[in-house]
Amino acid sequence: MIDPADSVTLALPQPTRVRFVAGSRVHTATLDQDLFGDWTLTQSWSGPHGSRGGGRITRVASFEAGMALMQALVRKLGKDGYRLAP
Questions:
Q1: Domain map of the chain by residue range?
Q2: SS3 label, residue 74
Q3: What InterPro entries does the entry give (predicted)?
């Protein structure tokens, strides 16, 4: 809770974030919940220096659905030569 005296307001969970690299390419995915309780998977990527990056926001039904989508992304990026970054 944000305020200990408030029994209604709940703290937002920490976002779940993973970062992948392949050479000079970077791909980041974040699963988080907004103030309305909706879950989103936000992806952003960048290419080699000077190239355009991009991004995508995908609404998901639940935390579990978002984690399933993130696991599929981990498998796909692994096949594309990306590795998890610290």
A1: 16-84
A2: helix
A3: YehF/YfeS-like_WGR (IPR049809)
Coarse DSSP helix, strand, coil percentages of the chain, rounded to the nearest 5 percent: 20, 40, 40
Q: Are residues 44 and 54 in contact, defined by beta-carbon separation less than 8 angstroms?
A: yes
The one-digit pLDDT tens for each residue of the chain (86 residues) are 445 556 666 555 666 889 999 988 899 999 998 888 899 999 999 887 767 789 999 999 998 999 999 999 999 999 999 998 87
Domain covering 16-84 in this structure, CATH number: 3.10.450
pTM: 0.74
